[in-house]
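2024-03-11 09:14:02 INFO queue: dequeued item Copper-binding protein MbnP-like domain-containing protein, len=240
2024-03-11 09:14:02 INFO validating residues
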Amino acid sequence: MKNLFYTALFGSLLIFSSCKDEEIPATMAINIELEHVLAGQTLELNGKSFTLPSGEDFTPKKFKYYISNVELKNSATGETYVEPESYHLISEDGNKSIDLGMVPSSDYDQLVFSIGVDEVANGKTDQTGDLDPNSDMAWNWNTGYKFLVLEGEFTNSKTSERQGLVMHIGTNANYKTITQNLSGVRAGKSTTLILSSNLDELFLDPNTLQLSELESTTIMFGEMAGKVAENYSDGFITVK
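2024-03-11 09:14:37 INFO prediction written
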């Protein structure tokens, strides 16, 4: 009888110890890495030529954009983590990661973020960090930020001449919020999320853009800028 008692006690201690070992930490590290691709290839600046969806030859020289107001959501429980002061300048020749640090543990299944700078932050340019106007992303003649910048040269399919492309998209109307589904993010487990920014999508869906057909290839405001914003609002940045 005594042996049975000690056996049961030992078994209970093992179960208790196992439960303690499996306790979920209160926080976990989340990091986001971004990859830039064009025509199915890794983006390179100042040299390599790529073929746009329209078939036009394009050499990119500058590519920058803002990701802001990052949130993680657990749709089953309603838990949400909102990153404070969430403004990140991403560029091909600079930063391509977002370190969310230690966030509350949860099985997050949605990532929400915006392309651009929200109306409050976009109303002033006396800020620091990634919103420092010296980052070359603030309009130097007016209040507000460029949300996305793409510059380069392309071969005009009509004239065969090389022309410049200047795509500077901003204004509050072109601030777009995106939701992406996540898988594999488990409570207590540090995770790196890989996002792919596909530049082809800037020229596709819902608006097909052929540079050689445009009245101007300096795209900053108006209807054409709105079309680019509609394009980057869906399919431009996706979770791999």
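2024-03-11 09:14:37 INFO annotate: Residues 25-239 form one domain.
2024-03-11 09:14:38 INFO item closed
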